[in-house]
Every structure is written in C-alpha cells, then in structure tokens.
Amino acid sequence: MDALEIPPLSEIGLDLLDVTPLWRRAAIAAPFACTGLFFLLAWRGWWWLALPCLALHTFLTYASVSHDLVHGTLGLSPRANDVLLALVELLGLRSGHAYRASHLFHHRRFPDPEDLEGAPARMTWLRALLEGPVYLWRLGSWAWKHGRRRERVWLGMEAAGIVAYVAAAVYLWVTGRTAIPVIYGGLLVLGSWLFPFVFVYLMHDATGRSPLFQTRAFRGRIVPALMLHHTYHLEHHLYPMVPARNWLALARRLDPLLERAGVIPIRLP
User: How far is 238 from 3, CA to CA, in rounded Å?
Assistant: First the structure.
C-alpha cells in the first residue's frame, strides 16, 4: 500500500463515521464543564484539582472536540458547527475559525513549505519549542490574510471575544476582586506554547517519502489514552473524516495494511 493505494473508507468501514447523539452531547458539554470546574475549584482554593481540569480542557478543545468541529465530523448543521467551533475555542482564548483555516490547509498541503501549521515539523525540536509563543499568532494572521469575507467576520468576532475576556480579567485583577481569570488565561497561553512541539513536531515527519511516512503512527495504552487518542495521527491524516472517538478503532483496522506497507509504529507505554 503506497500513497496511491490507500483504500477508501468504505472498505475500512463506514461505521467509523458514526457518532451517537449521547456521545455528541457529552463531547460538546465536556469543555464547558471543565472550564466551569476550573473556576469553581480555583475559587475554593483547590488548585490541585483545578489545574488537572485545565489540562483536560486543552485536550478536550484543541485536540478533540474543536478538532472534530474543524473537520465537521460531529454531524452538526454548518451553522451549529460554526457557532460551537467559535465558542469552544474561545474557552481556550483561541480563534476556532483561524484553527479551521490553517488546519484544513495543512491537510491539503503538508509537507509543502506553504503549510504554516506544519512548519514546526521541518524544524529542530528546540526550534519547534521556541516557536510556541508566536505560533498561534502566525496562524491567525495567515487565516485573516487568506480568509474570505465570511471567515473574516468570524475571525473578527473571535478576536473581539478574546480581547474582551483579557480586559475583564485584568480589570478584576487590578481592582483586587480576583486574579483567577488572569491565572486561567495565563495558563492557557503557556499551555498553547507547546502546540507546535507536541501536535506538529512529534506527530509528523516532513522528510517522509509518502503520506504513509510523513505522519507518525504511535501505539500504546497509557499515553494514547492520556492524549485522548490524538497519537493516532497517521490514521487521522489518511481518513480525516473519521471523528476522534473512532480513531482507536480505525487504527486497529489499519494495522495489517500499515504493516504490509512497512510502517513501523512507535511504541509508547
């Protein structure tokens, strides 16, 4: 199986597209629940519980629910998908529509040098880490430059929402009311600095000879579960229409095909 012999999803199983209504509602509610729990637990001073909620929130948004919304795999109407993409990513003080623009371009063009999202895969590990503070800014600027009028409306509203949150958080801090919103925002920003290293550099190989070797395959139990199966990145690149909840099942079905193609997965705990 090479880049031209990847079987259609119909041969792998169209049931991998299935998303139950219960799971869809739970997936959408989870990021909002994590955000609410963070503020509740932080307000009570239980930071040892609040911080894990924030870490889970990052994977539930950028790496899972937001990712599904970017690809439109949750079975929602276009309008509902747009609204939720904006709201869920705003919980992380990020632009959902900038994410969608850059990510879909990444799927079409990686490892082309024009693929800005995939650029850290062409860097050293240290350079990918140093890219963190400017990475999302660059993607946002790229999305604005290349976006159509409708997309720019969404980008503008999302930017306004982020600015409004930051202004309110700073006001509450400087007036002595609470520093929790500033801490929340600061931790989210610091966490996002790992995105180019974790989600791009570690997951891709820009020197691979074909799509089967340009994105890494990982196998394991503990680490993939902790990363909400985002380690099944090769499988996602091959079949981006499959929702995140079914990546593990997709990987298991592809294992014999990948083995015959000479793909050697990286074994994790």
Answer: 10
Residues 25 and 72 placed together within one structural domain of the fold: yes
The whole domain housing 25 covers: 19-207
95 and 114 housed in the same domain? yes
Instruction: Report how far residue 28's alpha carbon sits from residue 76's, in angstroms, rounded to the nearest whole number.
Output: 11
Q: How many domains does the chain have?
A: 2
If 0-12 CB within 10 Å is exposed, 13-18 middle and 19+ buried, where does residue 170 land?
middle
Q: Are residues 190 and 227 in the same domain?
A: no
Going by pLDDT thresholds of 50, 70 and 90, the confidence category of residue 11 is very high
96 within a domain of the structure (yes/no) = yes
Report whether 96 contacts 90 (CB < 8 A): yes
Q: In this structure, is residue 197 part of a structural domain?
A: yes
The residue with tokens 């997951």 is 203
- Interval 96-144: pLDDT, tens: 999 999 999 999 999 999 999 999 999 999 999 999 999 999 999 999 9
Q: Is residue 113 within 8 Å of 102, Cβ to Cβ? A: no
The per-residue b/e assignment along 107-125, b for 16 or more CB within 10 angstroms, e otherwise, is eeebbeeebbbbbbbbbee
